[in-house]
Amino acid sequence: MKKTILLKAIALMLILSSCSDDDGENLIDFTATFASATVSTTEEETSKEIVLNFSRSASEDGTITVSYSGDNAEYGTDFTTSPDGSSGTISVPVTSGDTNASFTFNKLTNAIEGTSKSVTFTIDGFSDADWSTGTTSSSLVSYTPIAATSGIIDTENGGSNQPNQVYFDFSTGVQTAVRRDLWEIGLYNGTENRVFLNASLSVSAVKLTGVTDLLSVTESSELPAPMELNALDAMFQPTTVNVSTVAELLVGLPVGYNQYGNLEAGISFTDSPEGTLEGTAFAEISTTAEENYVYLVSLGKEIPTEPAETGSINTTGDLRDIIKVRILSDGNSYTIQYADLNETTAFSEVTVPKDAAHNITAFSLTNGETVSVEPAKEEWDINLSGVFTYYGYQGPIAAGLTYSDYVVHNTLGGVGLYQVTIEGDVPTYANFTMADVDESALVYDNRAVVGSGWRDTFGGVVNTGRYYVLKDADGNYYKLNFTAYTSTEGERGHFQFTYERL
């Protein structure tokens, strides 16, 4: 039987190889399309990269000719481009193997208040007669912010190690990529005093109820009271453990199948996947200092540097340190006290004011400083976090779970989203219009509606039977459809999605 299967596989490979040739006759058509039909700029921005996406990798070198027309904008006075476009057109170079190309729009002036100013770029020709224009033939670059109408986005998650989180704003078409190991905790800037964990780095935390003296805690310390927790035994069967020392508790603190917890009793060492204020591993920080206890914090797992085999991922490396943390608040700021687990003489202390412009302020416990991670709360809609972890159920078993290719939406910033499953009379993505929007289906209290459900891990493809509808904080509606799971070379960690404003 195995020999028959092997012979069939070899025959199939021979058939496939005989169907290909150096002339690329069996390649799909090569088309170029603007990544976004509209591009916004702010007064502070002086340049913008304008991207052209290809339907496949270019099989030869060439150029794409782009023309332009200005609305209250003159070349050389209000803008220039790179490559140069003073002749009236821009020759954008294409190198064999490229999956996209780009040119730079350089803004020399700003729009006068109360007036419009923009430049429209249009695909005007190709050096290869077999190349053609795709779905979006032009892109309008506005000198003032406007809501984007559509786009095709290749995310910058960074490949099979998925080192980056990517924040995307539909109204501007801007993606912001940041390394996911820049921070461990996020301080909530709303009226409640809450602390979030970096789920993309597998950070976890456990409270030592009743303990307020940070320096009194070491690995050999006894717990104020024994804890009965759920666990999995060597055969991955549910069991219970009783821990009475810090050392025993640390065994089940890091995220993983051996992580301790008890969801029925409300005990979780991670934030909930929904991302609600009530679902944080840290209790709400009290303005009464004596009510804020010491936490043991696992700083997560390193980002590996060794790439995975084609089609696979390698996202979780060695376990990082475990430290002790105590956080206080006066309602307008947070004071973070922290030290190495076995430190008994001194601790570090940093005060961080609340910042109303952002949902959270990210803080690095490894470097002792705030770091820039999330864009302003009104300037992102979805976070393609890559890796995402939480303690929860996988079938009947509760454990610390790790997902890749994960997507969440900005519920703290007032963004709503729901999934459309294509069945029965439900319209396809292409046919979905504003008239089809179900306002009541929009979800504002669960950031994980998309999660990892947009792709089929075992098939290595996107799930074509679903797409998503999103309403941003400004009331703009968009439909969103994932179109790629890997790069053209098959490497994981290169997502692509298309969107359109309704």
UniProtKB/TrEMBL annotation:
InterPro entries per the record?
Answer: HmuY
Q: Which UniProt keywords apply?
A: Signal
Signal peptide segment = 1-21
Superkingdom of origin: Bacteria
Does Magnesium show up as a keyword for this record?
no
Entry protein name: HmuY protein
This chain's source organism reads Flagellimonas hadalis
